[in-house]
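Give me the 3D structure for Taurine--pyruvate aminotransferase.
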Amino acid sequence: MDGTYSQNDLSHVVDADKAHVWHHLVQHKAFETSDPRIIVEGKGMRVWDQNGKEYLDAVSGAVWTVNVGYGRETIVKAIADQLMKLNYFAGAAGSVPGALFAERLIQKMPGMTRVYYCNSGSEANEKAFKMVRQIAHKRYGGKKTKILYRDRDYHGTTIGCLSAGGQKQRNAQYGPFAPDFVEVPHCLEYHAADQGWGHLSGEAYGQRAADAIEEVILREGPDTVGALCLEPVTAGGGVIAPPPGYWERVQEICTKYDVLLHIDEVVCGVGRTGEWFGYQHYGIKPDFVTMAKGVASGYAAIACMVTTEKVFDMFKDDTSDPLNYFRDISTFGGCTAGPAAALENMRIIEDEDLLGNTTRMGDRMMGNLHELMNKHAVVGDVRGKGLFLGAELVQDRATREPMDEKRVQAVVAECAAQGVMIGATNRSVPGYNNTLCFSPALIATPDDIDQITDTVDKALTKVFG
Ligand code: PMP
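Predicted structure for Taurine--pyruvate aminotransferase (465 residues):
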């Protein structure tokens, strides 16, 4: 660390934090016997805590966000320059970086034309849900209000997004939820046997999992279903890359029943899987794409809901109806730091070929994870795409019974003790919190990747022998 803070300052910070901060995702009793971790500084792939301990961050800021790494001076400068000119203006007005980033983003998304700014992934998804509902009222006489979501997918933290949430434990005690959100099955081939479709694999499984969506549409009535919302590669639900043939069939089904396709790229977006967007691996034509985390790598809060001219026109053309526009605002959608940071973030990804690096490093990491699977019986499955990978831990390879959560967390804690931060997905799904998760920044080097997997190797040996 650079010595900006003395040890006295940092002890005070820890005391102030313990006295007043309510942390995300944690039962606070834990801090009666141990201190919270305060991350004080970051540079590249590495961060330092209040004790000066260094960590290789293999999860990009805990929740797959800091795609271009820490300490990027050019992003900081782009933000500072913009803030000196104009920090904020909202309502119906636009901004210079807002217009320029929208233009650059749309160049990466053939078929899409319009960017709606807001400030979190949840909010971006809410915007798309609201548009789907408004289209149902405008075009379909108040029918087609149902929004399908998938078991295991997560779309955010608001009551609306939790209504579309497939991770049941996250929802527990927060109901009642919004009506007309309907669940469809997931597409995790490793647990296909639990879905009652027999022993299918590969394309046969992909087709079956997609057909299950069609069955729900037919059961609900196609004239009541407005949209299907999916993560291209499911994140918190267990790092689930789709089986072959799945997306092609999903697209076919959406087209057949006039169901709008909403792709939640909050995690996959902006390079994480080795393409600009996860859906671009599969030749999908979405109607809505939402994104947040990697858009500005956490240097500023920004989220985008991106759609097509076809959707845009539905809200523009009929001026005889006073309700015929999207009557919505996001106060902090008017912050200019977000698009200014996002423009520079995108330039860095292009100039440093971080998409190429993501594919190369992702392949290397996948190879290393396969070696771990050969060596440790508890590693039941490894999966993912680009630098978005998971290793599912099981009690028994034959039954695929999930490893118990305490021992999975012991592996995570042991890696942290050895200086590498990894994650475990599905923290809040009972019985399923068993997938170690890796999402290092897209700047990772071969040495970084090997350090991550070597540390996991040692941690697995320590916890399981
Ligand atoms: N969608 C997905 C796939 C996510 O993983 C998340 C956050 N983890 C969200 C939406 C919500 O984003 P935010 O926390 O920015 O509201």
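The two ends are 35 Å apart (CA to CA). Let me know if you want a second pass.
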